[in-house]
Write the structure tokens for this entry.
Amino acid sequence: MLGLIVARLKTTLPSIIGVIVVTFLLTRVLPGDTAAYFAGPAATPQAIAEIRSKLGLDQPLPVQFVAYVGALVKGDLGTSLTTGQAVTKDLAARLPASAELTLFGLLISMAIALPLGVLAAVRQGSWIDHLCRIVATAGVSLPVFFTGLLLVYVFYFILGWAPAPLGRLDAFATEPPRISGFLLIDSVIARDPETFRAALSQILLPALTLAIFSLAPITRMTRASMLAVLGADFVRTARASGLSSRTVIGTYAFRNAMLPVVTTLGMVFSFLLGANVLVEKVFAWPGVGSYAVEALIASDYAPIQGFVLTMAILYVILNLAIDILYGVIDPRVRLEG
Amino acid sequence: MTAKPLLDIKNLTVEFATRRGTVQAVKSIDIGVGKGETVAIVGESGSGKSVTSYAVVRILDRAGRVAEGSIGFSGIDLVGASEAQMRDLRGREISMIFQNPRAALNPIRKVGKQIEDVLLQHVQATRATARAKAIEALEKVRIARPEERYDAYPFELSGGMCQRIVIALALACQPQLLIADEPTTGLDVTTQKAVMDLIVELTRERGMSTILITHDLGLAAAYSDKVVVMEKGRVVETAAAAEIFCNPQHPYTRRLMQATPRVGMALRDLLPEAAAKPPAVPRILAAAGNAAAPLLRVENLVKEYPRPATGSLLAKLIGKAEPENPAFRAVDGISFEVRRGETLGLVGESGCGKSTTSMMVNRLLDPTSGRIVFDGQDIGAIPAKQFALTPLRRRIQMVFQDPTDSLNPRFTAERAILDPILRMGSLKGRDALRARCEELATLVGLPIELIDRFPHQLSGGQKARVGIARAIALEPDLVILDEPTAALDVSVQAVVLNLLEELKQRLRMSYIFVSHDLNVVRLLCDRVIVMRTGEIVEQGTAEEVLGAPQAEYTRELLTAIPHPPL
């Protein structure tokens, strides 16, 4: 297994290098002048030139690249000009927020989508199958900012059940000591039910928004994959040997149907992690998505490069985790390692 | 027969709801199976034989339902029984064995666990005794080292071994009735014999009744007491096994009998009497071409595959696989010739290297060493990837095993037939191509109005014709036929085999006929090569090899074929 992981990691090195080169070049090619942006609209050309040389932007591209890679090797992603903080520090603060939101959203989504997809496949053509289709279509056709706003409007504005959509914790709660960076987990570790409840009430609506959006691919994939497996010969054998429908569907069909679902899960997760800017904006969530977009608007190179690189590495780790999971589910994959 | 049969199917009609309305798959049939009796249900595809068995066990898919009739099983009405009652009966009282054993087992669950599931379900074992009982079940089906096999996954076992597991699964709870649905289709003849003998022995031992569903008359004759012949959802004849073959009553039974290749028949005898037989073409004796140089000469052909590294995990980690691990020789230094106008049969069981050999001769695979001389040129030296670009490609063509899988589902029959011409031929212009396609279709007996259809709109036999028309489109000198009739019903097979023989004569082609069916090889081939583990065991004329085999292995193969008593 260890050998498999090492071998897999080796194959991802070229893509990481590619990501470094491409993001570096792309940020340089993008229109917008960092120096001019930071000097402000009233700055003299002289002041702009001064800032430019201070940032090293007057150097030729290869020199800039070498400097960037040199810093990168030391674990330095540069400094954000907007926040004035080291990019690593910014990301370390914001990534857990995004990850917690995405994971929680995905958990809610799985809790609904997997049973719904399985039931829809088992009772094909019944009302639950139609419900599955409606939920999936509606979920994917409503833009996340709209569902987000709708949820805020109903649960905060009209019903008053949810707290104001203002970040991860309301102003009165204190943040638990940071261990995992996930407020829900940290507050449990700190045995602080008050904070846990506060964090949960804050995360519920944005997570639900994400869940509604990601329901569609997971439900559809579960349904399709279950249908294929239920038609397989070995399910017929299981039926013909009189196994209970629970065993047939759970042990025989579902585990086999999980393989494509796991792949979809991985894709949905990595997509959501970087792309839920809209949800982060609606709920004032201090995540990496909004951080990257702000940096992009400001032509702030360092955070963008740091963000893309982090995402690429996360993606690699995620894919590795999925590959390992595949091996756990399917003995045939283990052999090929 | 006893007064009251164990299984009593009366006036059974099964309907399927399809897009084009209800279709009756089984039409008011009566079948009785007595205690300890083995009944064979014989018929071609679409005859409703599998549907009947699914109706008995009530595992019809959602579109199907029993429209009429009753199924009684030792006093229980199976049509009216509740689902819970049925679940109790399945596996414990009535078991099934399926075609394609590897697919019939859960691919990601240990086989031992799968047997345990059944034992636990029917309270034949407790959690504590399940493992021991499962191993015992494996022992009963003669699986060597059952403790080890308990932990195996289906993909780690051979087809015959998987079928034994399925049998173990079916017999684990000592049922009274076993339904075997094409239990040996796709298995080698010797494996088939072993599996069938095992089924018969185990069921006799326990006084079980068996329903054997098969398309193979020989198999039905050899292993059953009573034969039920089905055609298009109806039972056309029911008689004792010994009787039905000597004295078939129904015309369909007679037709089926006639189409089954047997010893002492000529190829044209397979065709129904009513059909206008083509005038007998005298076989061009292979001797006629003897003087000339052979069309194809294969010398010391070897194909090696590297064996997967078997070293320890640590060794793999460091990247040190045992270098002394010898490569696996799929084809181990074989030599043979194909003369002009000759059909050479390549016979052997799965894994013997016959397909690898045909792939190398067809230049789809590069040999490790050896020479393949085609019409004086060493084509083995041309890499397989470049062979398609040489003018020789059009002279060697192939007909593939599965007529459905070997056609592009998005090509019409016309496009499929013309494909080689469009890629390699010189013919240009829509009208000329269309005319050529119609000519080819006529040649292979494909009605011209069908050539605009897509594969899914054609029957198995029609698809086989498209595949053959495609292979002969460029008028090749050598056609390699890889089990071209294995997926076809016997009556269709009879027609296709005759067509192949006729085409060979007319177009002066040579064939390499790859097959595991010795009866078919006997009919079609001039000379035969018997292969085993990559080597040639025996070669000679068809009469010599199959009539008076010299090698022990050939004799073994021949005796394993079930024969109808004729």
In short: The CA atoms of residues 366 and 383 of chain B lie 6 Å apart.
